[in-house]
Amino acid sequence: MSTSVDAEQAWRDLQRIRVPQERVYDEVERSAAGGRGSTWATAGLMWLFLAGLGLDLPGWGVALVIAAYAALLGVLGTLHHRRSRVLLHHTRCTWRMFATFGAGAVVTGGTTVLSGRLVDSLEPMAGSLIQATVSATVFLLFVGPASRWAARSVRGRGASAMGGER
């Protein structure tokens, strides 16, 4: 069965589909570039957690602090996810997003371990305050540019799926 295709109508249909898709990409890029609330809240939680570890708590106290930290991060992630206006399907997550997450974990974790070793000779509370400040600062400096870099890749992936144009 053969049907004739009107080129003009096909082009209009493509543009009608492409415009909402571009809006989705715009929103993803906007959320990566703006809305620093959850980033600052995460850095603040990290700072409180690392500073709290300098209190020389017993084993059960450390376990309780770790559980509270994980629970608060979970609540923060849930709130941020619910507030997001655009949700990407997992197949739209690019290698850049996964690389950014992994690199962020390595950089922040490495900074935390290295700064912890450097301040071992100091009093525990002063050392943990320095370690917390350095680690939270590195997190804040890394997450902004890395988020924007990862979000830009979503638009490129969608454009290549639609024919290679941007």
3D architecture notes:
The chain is mostly helical and 166 residues long.
Describe what is shown at a glance.
The chain has 166 residues and is an all-alpha fold.
Topology:
Blueprint: H1 7-33, H2 37-52, H3 59-83, H4 95-118, H5 124-161
Helix pairs in contact: 1-5, 2-3, 2-5, 4-5
Overall outline: elongated
Q: What amount of the residues lies in strands?
A: under 5%
Structural class assignment: mainly alpha
Number of strands: 0
Q: Given the structure, what is the number of helices?
A: 5
Share of helix among residues?
A: over 70%
Main sheet specs: none
Q: Order of helices and strands, N to C?
A: HHHHH
Mean pLDDT: 77
* CA-atom Rg in angstroms: 22 Å
Report low-confidence residues grouped into runs of 5 or more: 159-166
Q: State the end-to-end CA separation.
A: 34 Å
Considering the chains and any ligands shown, give keywords for the structure:
166 residues; mainly alpha; 5 helices; 78% helix; 0% strand; elongated; disordered C terminus
